[in-house]
Amino acid sequence: METTATILHADLDAFYASVEQMLNPALQGRPIAVGGGVVLACSYEAKKFGVRGAMSGREAKKLCPELIFVDGHFKEYQRLGDAAIRILDDYTPLVERISIDEAFADVSGTAHLFGPSVAVAQTIRRRVREEVGLPISIGIARTKHLAKIGSQVAKPDGLCFIDPATELEFLHNLPVELMWGVGPKTKARLAGVGVTTIGQLAATPGQSLDRLLGPAASEKLKSLAFNRDPREIDMDRRARSAGAQSALGRKLPTAKIIRPTLRMLADRICSRLRAKSLAGSCVTVRVRFADMHAITRSLTLDAPIAATGTVTEIAEDLVAGALRDHPAERYITLLAISVSHLAYQPILQLELSLGLEGEAMRPGTRRGASRWLADKAMDKVRGRFGWEAIGYGSVILEGHRSVPDGFRELAEKDL
DNA sequence: TCTGGGGTCCTAGGACCC
DNA sequence: TCTGGGGTCCTAGGACCC
């Protein structure tokens, strides 16, 4: 059976840090971290010292006294990430963007135009370097999972072609944590029974793996370990939820804290939804306590909503219920809202529902649609004069902005 | 002393329906 | 008194990824 490897996984190396080093040549070759209080990203020079993303700035400095902290150029990240991914588009329409700095591409259908996958990958790497100025690593394999592993092996600034004829040999020599879905917990469980490589996982009897990880996870890992990943390139993945969260430090769970925070979170989420004529019918809140343990509460509605006020009130009720269930917890450290079960809801449909039974958004509430219209008016003002021009008075919160807004926006998935 | 933000997917039990 | 099975949705929690 003749098979070829035509799935590419392209991944910009230490993306944010590489951009900073490109913009400021004095930073090249130096250990740098984007961010201050929290390390949002760091350069390879910093990684050598053990610096990692999500680490506190202080911890990072302790590991690497030479570390240079820089502010992020978030607009540039978006522009350059887009430019790099666009180069992939020149070689195939089958491109699946995973995040700002990463994408899959299937070049099987375009070999007659551009040559074999390795040649295409070499060209892409050269062009990204020349036209965008950044290093990008590419893995090439028969499946998405293996291509992704390939790009990790290729880093930094490399290319890794995995020949289908010897792919299992390649795969089985690698550590389990390179597999998709194996994080710290699963890695530790596997290590507990002496499994540290993908080959050892492949050789583990199904029954004992089932006992260790449950039948579903076990089956999934087995299929990945034998490179039987069925996933295909998906060109237009739709977001399934939209959420927002805010770390609070350590706060007493009073209405004074909770209400304005939830309103701000709902405002962020709902304006994003309305901008895309979307609404969701499931609202989930998360409350995290001082010991970092978090709980969730959710409510599914009869009809989708996107009005800030309605989402805020539902979130307040859910948080109140969550707190009632945990009376011993003295402090909260984070609040989050997520809206899911998203549905396209153009204004026409909303007006129709007004004529019928209001919008049943919430038991006992018929104000949802008029609120939605008021929100749309506000969105319009913001569109012309900026986000800060208008808003809910009570959302103005004191300082404590641990992460820049620019970073937050980059993390938002297109709805 | 402190520990970000935005997501996806899976599991398991219970309710409910046919 | 004893007695079904399958499917779907909801909720809560957990693991993981970028």
Description:
This protein has helices at residues 15-23, 44-47, 57-63, 74-89, 111-114, 117-132, 144-154, 167-172, 184-192, 198-203, 206-213, 215-225, 255-275, 308-325, 347-355, 368-385, 405-411; strands at residues 7-12, 32-34, 41-42, 68-70, 95-99, 102-106, 136-141, 159-161, 241-251, 278-289, 294-305, 332-344. The protein is α+β, with helices and mostly antiparallel strands and 415 residues long. Strands 5-6-1-7-8 form a five-stranded mixed β-sheet. Helix 7 (144-154) links the parallel strand 7 (136-141) and strand 8. Helix 4 runs antiparallel to helix 6 and helix 11 (206-213) crosses helix 12 (215-225). The chain binds a DNA duplex (18 and 18 nucleotides) through helix 9, helix 12, strand 9, strand 11 and strand 12.
Query: Biggest β-sheet: count, sense, barrel?
Result: 5 strands, mixed
Summing up helix and strand content along with how strands pair, one would put the structural category as alpha+beta
Radius of gyration: 24 Å
How much strand? 15-25%
Instruction: Write down the overall mean pLDDT.
Output: 90
- The end-to-end distance, rounded to whole angstroms, is 41 Å
H/E order of the elements?
EHEEHHEHEEHHEHEHHHHHEHEEHEHHH
Overall 3D form: globular
Largest sheet: spatial strand order: 5-6-1-7-8
**Helix coverage percent:** 40-55%
How many helix segments?
17
Ranges where pLDDT stays below 50 over 5 or more residues in a row are 355-365
User: How many beta-strand segments?
Assistant: 12
